[in-house]
Amino acid sequence: MQTLKKISLWIIYAGAALALAAPLFVNNSFFFPFIATKAFLFRIVVEIMLLAFLYLALVDEQYRPKRNILTIILGLFIIGAFISSFLGVNFYGSFWGDMERSDGLFLLLHLAAFFVILTSVIKTEKTWARFFDISLVVALLVSLFAVAQSLKLESVLATSGDRADATFGNASFLAGYILFQIAFAAYLFWKRNSKIARIYYGTLAALFIWVIFATQTRGALVALVGSIVFSSLLLVWTKRHIPIIRKSALGAIILVVAAVGLLIVFRDRPFVKNSPMLNKLTVFSFTDRTTETRIAAWRAGIEGWKDKPIFGYGLENYNIVFNKNFPPIIYKDEGSVVWFDRAHNVVVDRAVTTGIVGLLLYLGFIFYPAYYMLKRLRGNEEKQVPAIIFISLAAAYFVQDLFVFESIGTYVFLFFAWAFMASNFLPKFDVPKILTSKKLWLGALAVYLLLLGPIMWKGTLEPAKINLAAAVALRSNPVEDNFYVIFDRFKDVLEKENYGQNEYRIQFIDFIGTQLGEQGPINPEVFTIVTYAEEQLEKLISEKPDDAKNYLLAARFYNTTRDAVPGEEKIRIERALSYIPKLQELTPTRPHGPQEAGYSYLYLYEDYKEAGDAKQAEDSAKLAEEFFLKTIELNSEVVESYINLVRLYFMQGRNGEIADLIDEMEIAGANYKQAKHLTRMLGLAKTARDFDWISFFTEELTKVEPDNVDAWIDFALSYAYRGERAEAIAIADVIKGFGGNYIAEAEAFIENVNSGFYEKNPLK
C-alpha cells in the first residue's frame, strides 16, 4: 500500500509538472496546433492525476479535500455553467467546445479537478515553490522563442507580423501567460534569500517584462504597469516602517509614472514612432480599427445579454448573440474579421454565456482570495509580501482579461495560482461526514476506473486522432494531390462522430466550393461529391440551426457551384436563396445576407437574359439592386457593396448611373481609391467596353500605382478608341519612361493613333 501511495504521489507531482510545461508543446500535425496540443495534453494528464488522487484519498484521509470558500465558489460556478448550458442554445457544443478554442464544460471540469487535486495534495510552501521553479524554467524557454522571433530567426519558430507569440500562436495569450510568470518570479525572489537566487529571479522577471513588450499587447501592458503601481502602493502602506522597502516602492511608482509621462511627451519622436513596442503604447484612439471593433463586439454582447440576463446563452454561444446584434461597422471589406465567438472581454463573455449568476460567481472566484488577503494584510507580517504579489496578480489578470479572452494557456496557470492561494492563504473547514467516508471514496475510485477508458478515448484520444487526420486533409495540395484522394481523406474524417466534426464540415464544404465553384459544368463523376457536400451542409445546419454562419456558407456554396450540374443552374441559385430568410432572421444587421441574395439574383438576371426572358431578367435585376442597396444602407462605407451595383449597372447598360455611385462613395467615405477596388471596377468597365469609365478608373489607378504600366496602357487605349489622339499620345509618352520594350511599343502605338487605326477598328 505504501508503495502504491508513493507512486500515486509521484504521478500527481509529475502530472502537475507536465501541466505547467504544457506551453512548450506544439505539434504542427494538429488542426489548430497551438491550442489543440496543449488541450489534449492537459486533459490526459489531469485524468491520470485524478486516478492517483482518488486512490490517495481512499487510503489516506489527509489527502481528502478540505472545504474552503474558493472551492465552494468554483463548485457553484460550475453548477451555474451547467444550468446555463442546459438552458442555452446547444448543450452539446457547450459541453465539448470546439477544436479552435478547446473550451467548454469538459475543460472546466478538468480545471476544477486540477484545482482540487493541487489543493488537497500539495501541503507545503516548499513544494509549491518547486512547482513555481518548474513553471519559470518553462517560461524561460518560451521566452527564448519570443526572443528568437523578435530577432527574426524564423527557422526557430515563425510569427506573423512584428508581435512575439512564441509557442502560443497568439501574442495576447503569451502576454497573459507571462503575467503569471512575473508573479511567480517575484514570489521566489522574496522567498529565496541568497544573492545568486535573487539575481536569477530578478533577471527572469526583467526578461518576462520585455516579452510582454515584445507581444505589443496593450491590455497586458496596462495590466503590468497598473499592477506594479498597485503593488508598490500596498508595499508603502504595509512596510512604511522599513525605509528601504518604502523608498524602493516609491521609487518604482515614480519610475513608472515618469516612463509613461516621457512616452506621452515624446510619442511623436522617431525613436517612439519607429518602435512597434513603444508606438503601440502611445497610440490609442476610439477610432482605431482594433479598438472600434472591440467596443462594437462588447456592445453586441451587452445587447444580447439583456435578452437572457439570469443564466445567459450557455458556454460557447457568444457567437449567437454577436450574430443577432451584429455591428455593421465591423464589416469594412472582404478581408474583415466578421465572425466573433468571443467578446474579447471577460465580463461581457461571462455575462452572455453564463448570465449574471455565472458572472458574479466567476468574479468571486477571481477576486475572493485577493479580498481575503487584502482584509488581513496588516495582520500577518510574514505573508504580507506574497499576499501583495498575488493580490496584484489577480488585479493584473482581470485587467488584461478586459481586452482578450481566456485560453488553455492561461487557464492552467489561473487555476494553479489560485490553488496556491487557497492552500496557503485561505482558511479551511471540515467537510461533511459523508465526504470523509471510506466507502464513498472506494465507490468513486471504482466508478472512475470503469469510466476512465471511455473518458480518455471519447474525450481526448479519438478526437486527437481525428484531428490529425483532418489536418492531413486540410493541408492537402490540390495541385499536387489527386482531387478524389483529398475527398476520401475528408470523408474518412467526416464519417467519425466527434465534437470537432462541424469545424471539419465547414472546411470540407469550403474546399469543395473553392475547387468546383465558378468552374462551369463538372465531370459527372464528381456529382456524387457535390451531393455529399450538400448532405454535410444539411447535417451542419440541423446540428447547429441557430448559427448564422452555416446558412451563409450554404448560400455561398450553392451560388458558387450554380453551374456545376448542367440543367440545375436556376435550381441551385434558388436553393441559395432559400437560406437567406433564416440567415437574415438570425443576423438581421449583417450585410452578408442581402449581399449574397443580391449575388443570387444577379446570376438569375444573367441566366434569364441569356435565355431571352426579358421580364424575368428585369425582375431579377430589380431584386438584385434592392439587396445590394440594403447592404449599403447597413454600412455605407463598404466599397464591395457599391462595386456590386457597378457590376449590375454595367450589365444592364445603366452606365450613366455609375457616376451617382461614385459620388455616394465620396460622400459616405467609402475608400474606393485603392488599387484592388479600382482594378475590379476597371475590369467591369473593360468588359462593358465603356471607354469613358475605363479612362476614369485607369486615371485613378495610375495615381495610386504610378508604376503600374498596364494601367497606363489601358489609360492610353481608352483615349485612342474615343479618338482623343492628343491625350492618348501624351500618355504614350509617359509609358516611354518605363524604358525597355515599352519605348518601341509606345512609338508603334503613337503611329497607330495618328493613322486613326483605333477609331477605324473599335472594340466590339
From TrEMBL:
Pfam families linked to this entry: Wzy_C
Main location: membrane
Cellular-component GO terms for this entry: membrane
Keywords, ordered alphabetically: Membrane, Transmembrane, Transmembrane helix
Record-annotated O-antigen ligase-related domain positions: 204-363
Localization: Membrane
Membrane topology field: Multi-pass membrane protein
Regions that span the bilayer: 7-26, 32-57, 69-92, 104-122, 134-151, 171-190, 197-213, 219-237, 249-266, 351-373, 385-405, 411-427, 439-457
Protein name: O-antigen ligase-related domain-containing protein
